[in-house]
Specification:
Layout: E1 7-17, E2 21-30, E3 36-46, H1 48-65, E4 70-75, H2 78-85, H3 93-106, E5 113-117, H4 124-134, H5 145-149, H6 156-164, H7 180-194, H8 201-216
Parallel strand pairs: 1-4, 4-5
Antiparallel strand pairs: 1-2, 2-3
Helix pairs in contact: 1-3, 6-7, 7-8
C-alpha cells in the first residue's frame, strides 16, 4: 500500500438523532490504488456538528496512522469545511475543543490536506454507515496493523470499469470457459467495492464456492 505516491480521499459524516441526541460518526478512506477502509461508531449524546467533527478527527487520525502525505477531505457539512478552511470562526464553545484537536492533527500531515464541501448524495456511503452505527451496527475503530489489514484492495482499472459500466469492444466479450453466473458475481463485488461498500475475501469466496466446486470435481 503506497503512502506518498498520490492523494488519498477521505469522506466523513456525523449525525445526531434529536440534535442533541444519539450520535455517531463515519468515514470512508480511499487510497490512490483503490483500497477502501470504512469506520463507524456511536458517540453517545451530542449535536450534529460535534459528531461531524468526530468523523473528521477519526478520519484524520486513521490517515496519519497509515502515513498518508496528501489528503483530500470531502464532507457534506459546510460549517465544518468552512471552519477548517478558516473562513468561519468557531464561536460555539462545545465545538472549540474538538476543533482545536482536529486542527492539531491536520498540521501533522507532511503534505497538503484539502477540504471540499460536497452534496449529501456525493457522500452517500458515509451517511449510510453513520445511520447503521446509530441502528446498532457499527464498524469498530481499528488502528495500527489491524487498520492496514482491513483495507479492501481493488484493481483501479477494474474499479473504473465497474463504476462507468463501460468497456472496450474487445474487453466486452465474455471470457471463454467461465460461467455467466460466476462473472456476474465478480462484477457485482467490484461494483460494491467501487462505491465504498464492504466486501471481504471470505464473503466473496462463499459466493463463488459453487463454481469452484465444479472446477475441482
Amino acid at each position: 500500500m503506497s503512502k506518498d505516491s498520490g492523494t488519498w480521499l477521505l469522506f466523513t459524516d456525523g449525525g445526531s438523532r434529536g440534535n442533541p441526541g444519539l450520535a455517531a460518526y463515519a468515514f470512508v478512506l480511499v487510497d490512490p490504488a483503490g483500497g477502501v477502509y470504512q469506520e463507524a461508531e456511536c458517540l453517545g449524546r451530542m449535536t450534529n456538528n460535534q459528531a461531524e467533527y468526530y468523523a473528521l478527527l477519526n478520519g484524520l487520525e486513521a490517515a496519519l496512522d497509515l502515513g498518508v502525505h496528501h489528503l483530500h477531505v470531502r464532507s457534506d457539512s459546510e460549517l465544518i469545511v468552512k471552519q477548517m478552511q478558516g473562513f468561519y470562526q468557531v464561536k460555539n464553545q462545545d465545538l472549540r475543543e474538538i476543533y482545536e484537536r482536529t486542527k492539531a492533527l491536520e498540521v501533522r500531515f507532511p503534505g497538503r490536506v484539502r477540504f471540499e464541501h460536497v452534496r449529501r448524495e456525493a457522500n452517500k456511503r458515509s451517511d449510510e454507515l453513520c445511520n447503521m452505527a446509530m441502528d446498532g451496527n457499527p464498524s469498530p475503530k481499528k488502528r495500527g496493523p489491524a487498520l492496514r489489514e482491513s483495507f479492501i484492495s481493488v484493481d483501479p482499472e477494474s474499479l473504473a470499469k465497474a463504476a462507468s459500466g463501460s468497456a472496450s469492444p474487445k474487453e466486452s466479450k465474455k471470457p471463454k470457459g467461465f460461467a455467466p453466473g460466476l462473472l456476474a458475481t465478480l462484477e457485482e463485488a467490484l461494483k460494491k467495492a467501487s462505491s465504498g461498500q464492504p466486501i471481504t475475501a471470505s464473503e466473496l469466496a462463499i459466493q463463488i464456492q459453487p463454481w469452484l466446486k465444479r472446477v475441482t470435481d
